[in-house]
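Field log, afternoon session.

UNIT: design team B
ACTIVITY: writing a sequence onto a fixed backbone
BACKBONE:
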């Protein structure tokens, strides 16, 4: 039975209820020596505690999208088939334009999330990663009035641990944005959420580590190409944004700063700069990797200031100070906006930020004239 979804949750509740009833029915009926009776009663108490914890765990997991299955819980998932040295651009000497077209089939995910969310198992042509990707299309996508429009894209990164469903279950991103998109208050973005937990209980940090994982190429090359090959998505950086919370905020800032030719906007909610802030980080355990994958260092070491608009949110050392440090180091045309957001390092805080974050993205998109056709409903090239 699947870890997520209603059937297992209902089963857990039934078992918990049964565990409460059993002692009332059997406590005084247990027979045998004192030791046997004691062990039997202890087992009933233990069963009640375990089932109660199971109900809480499943409820929290369903609400926040932390794990997809038991292998995820136990840290046994390995989505890396190869991890070649792909060089600074993450392409290994190849050009995206020369790669074969990515043809994918999609299926609906659990309707308890959103019936319009689709998922596919993507085998990365460049990264050597094979993992699931969630895609949500805005309400305008199938509207005949928009049949010739290419839509802007936001790539969504979860915290650690987390799954592609974290933004949809925990942050309720589509539930909050769909009415705003229908009212024209938020641009009709395609939302794409790839798996970023690729190596069991280790955090790949959206980094390329030869011989270990090419998570950066996975999200910035393979996932991006899959989207532009299968949907009417803007292909240039002007129509692409990266957004994440916690470890996902670190990822969003890092990939956007490293590849301004692929992303024009980035949002980091409670994100950190030093990879070692996440104890499970692969790059945080090595001094050179730790320095090379710090977004602040990436900005400082860039050959020229990247044309990038960034939004940092948080409080104190939980994203706010990191934003101030990045803003102090930024030079035109890099723009960094920092907002203090109270509420702590928790899902409810980030969920409350969703409308403001996407309103900010919409204003930057329209201000830059990027993918304006999608936002205004005018015609663009048709795939």
């Amino acid at each position: 039975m699947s870890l997520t979804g209603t059937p297992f949750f209902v089963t857990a509740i039934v078992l918990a209820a049964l565990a409460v009833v059993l002692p009332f029915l059997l406590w005084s009926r247990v027979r045998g020596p004192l030791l046997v009776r004691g062990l039997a009663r202890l087992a009933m108490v233990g069963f009640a505690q375990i089932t109660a914890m199971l109900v809480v765990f499943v409820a929290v997991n369903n609400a926040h999208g932390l794990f997809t299955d038991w292998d995820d819980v136990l840290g046994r998932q390995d989505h890396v088939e190869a991890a070649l040295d792909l060089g600074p651009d993450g392409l290994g000497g190849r050009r995206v334009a020369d790669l074969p077209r990515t043809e994918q089939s999609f299926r609906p995910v659990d309707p308890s999330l959103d019936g319009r969310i689709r998922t596919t198992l993507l085998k990365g042509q460049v990264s050597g990663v094979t993992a699931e990707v969630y895609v949500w299309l805005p309400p305008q996508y199938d509207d005949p009035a928009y049949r010739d429009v290419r839509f802007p894209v936001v790539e969504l990164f979860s915290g650690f641990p987390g799954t592609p469903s974290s933004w949809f279950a925990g942050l309720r991103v589509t539930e909050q944005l769909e009415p705003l998109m229908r009212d024209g208050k938020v641009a009709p973005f395609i939302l794409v959420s790839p798996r970023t937990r690729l190596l069991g209980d280790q955090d790949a940090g959206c980094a390329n580590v030869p011989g270990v994982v090419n998570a950066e190429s996975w999200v910035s090359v393979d996932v991006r190409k899959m989207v532009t090959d299968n949907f009417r998505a803007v292909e240039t950086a002007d129509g692409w944004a990266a957004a994440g919370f916690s470890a996902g905020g670190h990822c969003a800032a890092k990939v956007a700063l490293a590849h301004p030719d692929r992303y024009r906007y980035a949002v980091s909610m409670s994100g950190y700069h030093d990879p070692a802030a996440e104890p499970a980080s692969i790059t945080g355990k090595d001094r050179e990797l730790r320095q090379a994958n710090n977004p602040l260092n990436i900005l400082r070491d860039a050959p020229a200031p990247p044309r990038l608009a960034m939004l940092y949110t948080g409080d104190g050392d939980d994203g706010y100070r990191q934003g101030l440090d990045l803003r102090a180091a930024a030079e035109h045309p890099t723009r960094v906006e920092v907002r203090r957001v109270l509420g702590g390092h928790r899902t409810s805080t980030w969920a409350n930020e969703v409308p403001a974050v996407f309103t900010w993205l919409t204003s930057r998109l329209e201000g830059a004239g990027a993918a304006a056709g999608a936002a205004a409903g005018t015609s663009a090239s048709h795939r």
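LOG NOTE: Confidence is low (pLDDT under 50) at residues 370-383.
NEXT ACTIVITY: expression trials, pending approval
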